[in-house]
């Protein structure tokens, strides 16, 4: 089967979305499918992931950062005004741009927000669309796919897939790794939300099928659109866990419990406060628990730690390569997953969660305790899921007691990650694509 991926995130870009899509392409290719990938060149991420399909099958294209235009215009205006002295009329007082009232041309926040709402549609990557569409049409002259697999976010990828599928009359399968028109994280104004609903519906009506990352989301899309929907989880690759770190599970210091979080954090929505609160209540926990964050670029977490007076109990590190993130997961006692404490979070399954399961270290889930990750952790005895500081404190003490008694926290059973490899997810995707293209029941 010939499959065209339309994916902004793809190796070598070091993002969790690129890991997912690179692994799906890798195993689909191993299964004998002819996978080609339409992606973007020069994206703003470290290029450290391996490309695990033949490089000649990856087509990187130019893209335009449409949000650079306002800044360029401002600089041009400043240069123009600078050539006429103060920029003010003769005899008038010069005005400090910092003191100009909100809404004027020199105040960026309101205008920038308005510009983004109007022109970042479907999102800020819309400047990728022209070059990506042109490159795909050129490719179709010599290679015609049996299916187009457009994966979002960014949702510009879905629009590209829609335009190509209509033009070339090729079956389109769209993937929602995150929600679009009903995203609870950053709700737009009502008029923008309505436009997103209309555009999403138009694209999906043309699609032959959908994929997403959890069963609750799949149920929503089935009910909303009446289309075949498959759940393709994020996964883990056992081959990536090979090496010296696989033999050593857990932190070697017997009297220290090391908890690690890898990846980004959404301010106000993925919150370590319950854990920090638990640690702050007991001097022995403040002394013996260390919470380590990899991938943070802001002072958000240290500020919360200071509020709870546990700044000496945390470490914050920048983003690291994927292999190093996996190594740190294995070298930790407990893995931390944070989610919004709301029913809206029920079907959200972050990519790192399945890698956490693959590391086979205990997991502490903060957030909605009926969400998919919390449910899996409880069903598979893979850790704890709670936002109650006292319950968290009791669990930390239980883990510390095991370390004291046995010298380390033992690895979890292999059953905790059964069914979640990238290879198994790629097999599910291959079967779904074949059934959809052939018109068989999904």
> Main β-sheet, in a few words?
7 strands, parallel
Number of helices: 16
Straight-line N-to-C gap: 17 Å
Structural class: alpha/beta
Poorly predicted ranges: 84-107
Radius of gyration from the CA trace?
24 Å
Shape: globular
Strand ordering within the main sheet: 3-2-1-4-5-6-7
Helix content: 40-55%
Using DSSP, what is the number of strands?
13
Description:
The protein has 16 helices and 13 strands. With 442 residues, it is of the alpha/beta class. Helix 1 packs across helix 16 and helix 9 packs across helix 15. The two termini are 17 Å apart. Residues 84-107 have low confidence and may be disordered.
Write the layout of secondary structure elements.
Layout: E1 2-6, H1 16-30, E2 34-40, E3 58-61, H2 68-82, H3 108-119, H4 129-140, E4 147-152, H5 156-168, E5 172-176, H6 190-206, E6 209-212, H7 215-225, E7 229-231, H8 244-247, E8 257-262, H9 273-280, H10 283-288, E9 289-294, H11 300-307, E10 314-317, H12 322-330, E11 334-338, H13 351-359, E12 363-366, H14 372-379, E13 383-385, H15 389-406, H16 422-438
Parallel strand pairs: 1-2, 1-4, 2-3, 4-5, 5-6, 6-7, 8-9, 8-11, 9-10, 11-12, 12-13
């Amino acid at each position: 089967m010939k499959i065209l991926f339309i994916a902004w995130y793809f190796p070598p870009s070091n993002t969790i979305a690129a890991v997912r899509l690179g692994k799906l392409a890798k195993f689909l290719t191993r299964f004998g499918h002819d996978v080609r990938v339409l992606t973007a060149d020069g994206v703003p991420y470290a290029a450290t992931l391996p490309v695990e399909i033949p490089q000649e099958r990856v087509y990187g294209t130019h893209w335009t950062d449409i949000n650079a235009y306002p800044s360029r215009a401002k600089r041009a205006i400043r240069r123009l005004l600078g050539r006429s002295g103060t920029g003010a009329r003769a005899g008038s007082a010069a005005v400090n741009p910092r003191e100009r009232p909100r809404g004027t041309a020199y105040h960026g926040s309101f205008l920038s927000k308005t510009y983004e709402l109007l022109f970042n549609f479907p999102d800020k990557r819309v400047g990728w669309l022209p070059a990506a569409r042109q490159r795909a049409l050129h490719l179709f002259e010599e290679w015609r796919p049996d299916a187009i697999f457009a994966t979002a976010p960014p949702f510009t990828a879905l629009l590209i897939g829609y335009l190509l599928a209509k033009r070339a009359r090729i079956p389109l399968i769209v993937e929602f790794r995150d929600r679009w028109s009903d995203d609870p994280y950053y709700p737009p104004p009502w008029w923008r939300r309505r436009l997103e609903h209309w555009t999403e519906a138009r694209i999906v009506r043309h699609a032959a099928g959908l994929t997403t990352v959890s069963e609750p989301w799949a149920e929503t899309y089935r009910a909303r659109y009446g289309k075949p929907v498959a759940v393709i989880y994020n996964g883990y690759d056992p081959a990536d866990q090979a090496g010296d770190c696989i033999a050593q599970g857990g932190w070697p210091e017997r009297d220290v419990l090391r908890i690690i979080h890898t990846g980004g954090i959404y301010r106000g929505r993925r919150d370590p406060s319950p854990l920090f609160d638990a640690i702050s209540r007991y001097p022995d926990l403040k002394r013996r628990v260390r919470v380590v964050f990899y991938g943070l670029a802001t002072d958000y977490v240290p500020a919360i730690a200071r509020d709870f007076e546990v700044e000496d109990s945390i470490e914050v590190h920048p983003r690291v390569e994927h292999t190093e993130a996996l190594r740190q997961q294995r070298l930790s006692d407990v893995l931390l997953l944070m989610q919004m404490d709301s029913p809206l979070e029920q079907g959200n399954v972050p990519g790192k969660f399945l890698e956490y399961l693959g590391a086979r270290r205990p997991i502490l889930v903060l957030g909605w305790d009926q969400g998919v990750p919390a449910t899996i952790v409880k069903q598979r005895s893979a850790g704890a899921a709670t936002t109650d500081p006292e319950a968290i404190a009791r669990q930390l003490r239980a883990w510390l007691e095991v370390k004291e008694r046995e010298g380390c926290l033992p690895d979890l059973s292999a059953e905790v990650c059964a069914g979640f490899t990238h290879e198994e997810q790629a097999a599910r995707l291959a079967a779904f694509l074949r059934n959809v293209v052939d018109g068989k029941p999904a």
